[in-house]
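Ticket #4471: structure output looks truncated?

Reporter: J.K.
Steps to reproduce: submitted the chain below (609 residues) through the standard prediction queue, then opened the result file.
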Amino acid sequence: MTQHPGPDHPDDDAARVADLGGVQPQPAEVEYAGNRPRPFTAEAPQVPPRRSLLPILVDLRSYTRRRLRTDVLAGVAIAALAVPQAMAYAQTAGLPVAAGLYGLLIPLVAYAALGSSQVLMTGPTATAALLVSPALLTVSADPAAYPALGAMLALLVGIVFLAARLLRLGWISDYFSTAVLLGFLTGLGLTLIFGQLGVFTGVTVDGDTPLQEFLSFIANVIGGTDPATLTIGIVTLVALLVGGRYLPKFPMLLLVTVASIVVSQVLDLGGHGVVLVGEIPAGLPSLAWPGVSMRDVLILIPSAIGIALVAFADAVLTARSVAGPGDRPVDANQELIALAGVNVAAGLSQSFPLGASGSRSAVNVRLGGHSQVVSLVQAAGAALVLLFLTGALALLPKATLAAVIIYAAIGLIDISGWKGLARGSRGELLIAAVVVVGMLTIGLLPSLVLAVLMSIIDVVRRSAQPRDAVLGWSVQDRRFVDVERRPHARVVPGIVVYRLDDRLFFANSRYFLTRAREAIAAAPYAVDAFVFDAESVTNLDASAAATLIALIEELRGKGVRFVLARSRSAFDDEASRFGLDDALRPENRFPTVRAAVSAISGADIEAPE
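Returned output as attached by the reporter:
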């Protein structure tokens, strides 16, 4: 019989005590005396209501002047990073760059007040921007309609987040597959790069998908490149790569932005064919409901759901990854409220769907920012830019913004993550690859749906055919181990010891029955007893109970005794509810596999042969 490899579990109390370094465990009432935790109940909230509504108030109660200084410096530095990024991501979304700048105002204040993370930075992101453009194209091909449609899309995303919070769907964040996310980030990076090649080089690029855009770029690159545009793009990208590698704390993005504006003005780049950002409306945005028809709203709803799902995954995972040991835990349900506030504010202030920025959050941590005061300072900086610096920003070459996007996209491609998947799981590697190929060919949302379906199928497959093992006694380890992984292990003549490393339920009950029969048939001796090591079987359903009864009766008919070892209390309770007490009598139940084998064989398992 070929067994699925599974973990080797100690099968007796002595081994468990050894794993604890020889320390004898104490009764629970002794260990917890005077320090008993509160029981988990549905009625008992895990956090006080005021903390869950406005988490920033908790931080401000203990705020110090020293922390204010650090947060202000971090906020100024991140504002210098966020302004060109916001303009670049608005360009990616097919919107005026002003829409990106508007996303750094009221939306940041909304997250500062409502967000559970102390260090997460929100605003325009590559992820959300990339999803906006195809969503707008489903409604209209007229770029003049995009600002209103983008704002309405943001409002719809906010409404989706609110609905998810009312339904308490924060738990969904615990089920995002690593493979799907790795493929998504890689596909996102390649999509951003392919989408900016034309702006970066001055080459005319056409195509409805990233792959088509890339092929169009290859076909037109010879003879179609604008030397001045390409020079600006390359110099900017090289400066960002060098700065990120060797001067991580230096505001290189601010430097290249200012330098590009100065060079543009001095050399009159616009007059020499270089495409510039152009006029940006000065002043702060007005608050208004987007003027969009109900028909267009209905068309945008599916895209809003997809954007909300992706933005939520990105925000929660980023918030948890940048949280420090002493930070307040990230509350997924509170994040739903915060992201709803961010996007509603974006929609009312003429921006577009927003999310969490991993790069700006990482910079915030590196600079010592430790509260959402950083976001408030960042919003103030963006307001000053809109009030006084729009004239200068109009001179910024779009090739500089393309370089900013390409630089951010390169950071999304995790080569080490791909190597880890290749070493660990071919199934997950395939899922990640499907996401990448799908994003480059059929689009982001369809490929994500396909990848999630593949992940579900993979879970079902793993559940239907879980790991299992035939066990033998290891004199070296003094415990029962998988004979396939430990060839030196001794099997006991007349006894088959079999372990299933998963729950036993309708999807794998037939598989369990087949594997048990195979284990007995493959034994090199006549079998008198079948010992089922049930320690890993955490629960049982009606189908599994019926299968167990059928196996016990089948073995009894062949003169083989069925013995249960190491079953958990949850298993025993469910077995009793399904009427297995008569089939699993006390004389056929043992606390350890060693005790079961010794009782059946009538000899100490450690006795020499």
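Triage note (M.O.): checked the attachment and the full token line is present. The longest helix spans residues 294-322.
Status: closed, working as intended.
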